[in-house]
Amino acid sequence: MTVRTDTLSNGFTVVTEHMPGLQSASLGVWVNAGGRHERLPQNGIAHFLEHMAFKGTKTRSSLQIAEAIENVGGYINAYTSRELTAYYARVLQQDVPLALDVISDILLNPVFDPAEIEVERGVILQEIGQSLDTPDDVIFDWLQEAAYPDQAMGRTILGPAERVSTFGRGDLAGFVAEHYRPDRMILAAAGAVDHDTILREAESLFGDLERGAAPMIETARFQGGERREIKGLEQVHFALALESPGYSDDAVYTSQIFATAFGGGMSSRLFQEAREKRGLCYTIYAQAGAYADTGMTTIYAGTGAEQIAGLAELTIDELRRAADDMSQAEVARARAQLKAGMLMGLESPSSRAERLARMMAIWGRVPSLEETVEKIDDVSPQKVRALASELVSGAPALAIYGPADNAPDIDAIRTRLAA
């Protein structure tokens, strides 16, 4: 498998990876425009724009967009994250030019019909309502807000209903004009693809786009804090976050291995201590997330009102203990899990295309898998313990939702972390 990269004269990036033996391909355009690129009055507009991409162009109706891909057995979709918005498709080899044409059409020729805006506004408001009714969704939005208060990084991707209710055609077109510039776009394709063919198509479709001024992006500042709501649910939803390295720091691999060893599977400390030995919960896990300039190691658990105090104390105690005695065996197992998960996940062209785009967005290049594996193998127990020490010495963020009268507050969490 060969990764090839080219950049058009206007800054538009094309990156591909040919995967021998496949008859299908995954391709899409990733735009460096997500939730963190929104000003406060725009909160939710990147996601709204993603929805509107499929509501009609100058040459295709919304139905024709769907039929163009599904008539050939393909699949098309999009998503919005805090740093990127992606528009992607999976098709057979012979339909790659069609998929690229459709994706370029929805990016370059949206009409933002006012009637369709109203229809999709209703859909998004339903999506917001559904999210608010799903405790293990809303808890992570609250945690993000507690970690990054009064910042774009801390606001929800969906946006609040009151803002989404006001967006109009001019708002959508303005966000596109500001952020959907060729030097902020990455066309990634993997599977049964030919780089030179896709490069020619990209030049034809995107080569006339003009660069734009680089928008000012607020540097994320992990500050910590608390968001709590007492509600008569069946369980207390508990989420704790500590600042960890961002993507630009090689220590991100250490944070991923720590999170895996600490709470990433059935053999992890949290699962064994909290669930298997003490029966304090059904669900508990840790994960490490990263952005361009910051990161979060997150612990989540759902438990009963009577168990939440003990579960929270156990979690903090295990965090502190990990700084002292994370073992060679635990780190070796976590390294193996991380490598296997990465390599098995990259057996599909969709995962490969996603990786290509993300690596180009983060580093401007695609590290080889061998380089990534080497960095994972370089993580030692000493590095993991040192990271754990840094985590527990930082300011935590806490989100609590449910019958949480017995749950510790942020001050109690800080005190126990520092003990």
Helix content: 40-55%
What average pLDDT do the residues reach? 95
- The radius of gyration over CA amounts to 23 Å
Give unreliable regions as ranges.
none
> What best-fitting shape do the alpha-carbon axes yield?
globular
Q: Give the biggest sheet.
A: 6 strands, mixed
Could you give the order of strands across the largest sheet? 1-2-6-3-5-4
Percentage of residues in strands: 15-25%
Tell me the number of strands.
11
The ordered string of helix (H) and strand (E) elements is EEEHHEEHHHHHEHEEHHEEHHHHHEH
* Helix and strand composition category: alpha+beta
Measured distance between first and last alpha carbons: 51 Å
By DSSP (H or I, 4+ residues per run), the number of helices equals 16
Keyword list:
16 helices, 419 residues, globular, 6-stranded mixed sheet, alpha+beta, 11 strands
Structural summary, described in words:
With 419 residues, the protein is α+β, with helices and mostly antiparallel strands. Helices cover 46% and strands 19% of the residues. The chain has 16 helices and eleven strands. The strands form two sheets. The chain has a six-stranded mixed sheet, sandwiched between helices. The chain has a five-stranded mixed sheet with strand order 7-11-8-10-9, with helices on both faces. β4 and β5 form a beta hairpin. It is globular, with a radius of gyration of 23 Å. The mean pLDDT is 95.
